[in-house]
UniProtKB/TrEMBL annotation:
Keyword field: Methyltransferase, S-adenosyl-L-methionine, Transferase
Catalytic activity of the protein: a 2'-deoxyadenosine in DNA + S-adenosyl-L-methionine = an N(6)-methyl-2'-deoxyadenosine in DNA + S-adenosyl-L-homocysteine + H(+)
EC number: 2.1.1.72
NCBIfam families in the cross-refs: dam (TIGR00571)
Keyword rRNA processing: no
Protein name per UniProt: site-specific DNA-methyltransferase (adenine-specific)
Gene Ontology biological-process annotations: DNA restriction-modification system; methylation; mismatch repair
Organism: Candidatus Nitrosotenuis uzonensis
Family: Belongs to the N(4)/N(6)-methyltransferase family.
Name of the encoding gene: mjaIIIM
Keyword Mitochondrion in record: no
InterPro entries from the UniProt entry: Ade_MeTrfase_dom_2, DNA_methylase_N6_adenine_CS, M_m6A_EcoRV, MeTrfase_D12, SAM-dependent_MTases_sf
Source organism, top-level taxon: Archaea
Amino acid sequence: MSQILSVEPKPFVKWAGGKRQLLDVIEKHLPRRFETYYEPFLGGGAVLFRMLAQNPDARCKASDLNSDLVLAYVTVRDRVDELIQSLQNHAKNYKKNPDSYYYKVREQEPKDQIEKVSRLLFLNRTCFNGLYRVNSKGKFNVPLGRYSNPNIVNEENLYAVSNILRIRKVQFSCRDFTSVLDDADRGDFVYFDPPYQPVSDTANFTSYTNRDFTYEDLQKLVKVSEKLSERGCNVLHSNSNSPEVRALFSKDWKIVAIRANRAINSDSSKRTGHTELLIKNY
């Protein structure tokens, strides 16, 4: 790596349901002590980065079912210089003709690791609302966003992220959330931030991969959480403030409603005034 920066790392991808705006609230509900931190729905990684900054001795293991996203984290950690160079090429070509270049890149299916991750980050920075969405065939299908000067490279943050991931030796894997049962043990901390249960018929957004996260998946997640709790793990959930979510958790779980904006709503006036839930066993 050509440089090491001291700035605090932030998420390098914008992800639906990201937790940057809620970090200060979530931090108040984190356990004071734990051994290993697990995050099975990694997404943009806002909570992971806060955890790395605030708990220098904790081991961290993060995973997600989206293989492209996991590859992005591994690439930023291990090959950041090459990735930045590729993003700089995207930025230069985008500036010449944003519309045609965006859709040209969207149709590509690169096999090379650097180009694959670079394409994901480029589309994430230039697509509508920074929204990651794929169709039933697993194809990225978000239209071009309206940006006058998108920060496609964001070199300083990429170096900061790469630096802390390497120093702390964060482990990444592509796997289902149930796999946390294979590793987590007494004294560990597991944070679940799955695709939220919809609070209305028009609020359903679960297409992070080409497999939706269903109500049955949520039921399975609760069962996994109960097993972790019985094992002596600290478990924290984020989810929507819906009757279905509340009903699945027994009285042994503490449920806290917090205020939150929903940044993925196409109507900015409808992104405020919502509440969501933090659910914990400690």
